[in-house]
Specification:
Number of strands: 9
Strand content: under 5%
Structural class: mainly alpha
Order of helices and strands: HHHEHHHHHHEHEHHEEEEHHHHHEEHHH
Length: 589
Amino acid sequence: MKLYKFSLAILLGLGAMTSCNDELDVTNPNQQTTGTFGLTSDDLEECVIAAYNHTRMEGTYARVGYTIDVCRGDEVWNSSQVWYLPFDDLDEPITDGIGQWSWRDWYYTINVCNFVISRTGQDSDEGLSTAMQRVKGQVLFLRGLSYYNLAMYYNNPILITDYSTYSTLQGLYGTNSTFDEVMDLVESDFLRAINLLPTKEEGGEWKGGRATSGAAAGYYARALMQRHKFSEALTYLKKIINKDYGTYKLMDNYGDNFREGTAYENNDESLYEVQYLDYGNQGTDDEWTPVNTSAYATQGSAIESNYGPGDVGGWADLSASPWLYQLFKSERTTDGSLDPRLYWTIGTYEPEWANFEYGNVCYTKQMSATEPVITNNTNGGLPIAKWTNFRTGLYESVVTGLHDGINLRLMRYSDVLLRAAECINEISGPTDEAIGYINQVRNRAHLASLSTTGWNANSLFEQIANVERPKEFGCEFGRGWDLIRWGWFYDESRLAQLKQHGTFRRSSDRTLVKEAVRYEDIANDSELKSSYDTWVAGHEFLPIYQGTLTDNPNLKGNCANSGEDFSVKVYMQEKGWTIRPAVAGIGVD
């Protein structure tokens, strides 16, 4: 479902036009108001489109709303050492307005969703026509998605569920809600959406990108796992695997998940993705925020601009970590080749790529062993190939701005399989079933199956968390969320591991770009740095922007504002959650 138009929902806040003549009160029949608009499914369909549209803004998934979490993880570092630096260093100041962009844009989405919910029943989903069920299910999914992002970025945002209480972004005078209160709503919204939405087999726009029951079930399981509800999550993950919500499967070619075009997007592996117009079919206006209403919006993302190397016109901001590259290189396929996921994740020259896919290409430039491409011409870095045309050979250079037309696959079937394995391991330890799910993902990459013996719960978790997930989802959104739910910022062995994974070299010497680095060498090598050395308690989340706190005297900051140990002292210890210790000898330490 590509979004070609904007909704009339932008007019919802306008009052009725009336005459100032006391003797004649005439309402303009052509002026939509909140009293006259939204009474039919056709009206509300316009709002649904507006809500989807808001999820592809800069603060949601078009740029910073996506990439802040990418560089919060240990697979990516800030190669520009300017833009994104506070997010990579996990020391975002409360005065930096960029950290507020996600807050701003997700609340725009929530406002539209709340209006639709107010027209379709706030607390009850009974008695709705099929058309109204479809409408309501989509906005419940999108509101759940919005609050999920707000909770995982800001920890204790404001819950606004009643449209009548909403005024303006400057007037959000509610108080903070707890993490649990927000996640309770997230779970409720996703669960309600499951029961209202069709499967993708419905066809049409349901197969072409709208939220389906499968998407809602996948996100419901994710939300449950965020609070260690592994048994409940496993129930829904198995329903997806058993095709209760439609048929999903791994694509034979991993690279098909990272190309644009109808032949690849919304494919059989995708549970949910953000829809962007393919390059060449876009408008001309970059539309960064929800307040813009251009009819000629490009409707692309800027992820490619952030990832793209400077040599081909990119902004050269983010690079893959040396740890992730070495992890890929540490294991060969069953026929002795490199893991094909490396090709689509990191843009390096490898002799093995000569006849693989598009070959050793950086856009249309052929790379060589003596001329490797680096991300940033000053600080180096291994280029990220995902969500770019680095490997497709379609374009000569990056067209910067909101022009990347590759749909962001936010949830793939491989995630369902690996999450099911993780849940089983947390519930009952290693089992043949859990390892079987892992092996489906490994076998697609032509890697040997893991043995079903010799594991314990800690070692299998280590394999999932630090081998299987990084190689399958490297440089994608979500790693930062995993680090939070796993509690790794608050365990000594895990934090030491993150510091090692997050170590990188700042150098323009292209011959050093693939070199393995060690955290213990930082003290004697000024080019080395680790992103996690500057983390302080609470800054695994983004602080709530000071301007927002000033505008709303009822709102308090969060753990990043105060420097409190949210995860372990206030929450994880009280819940009795297990933080699994690091296990040496698995992956690349």
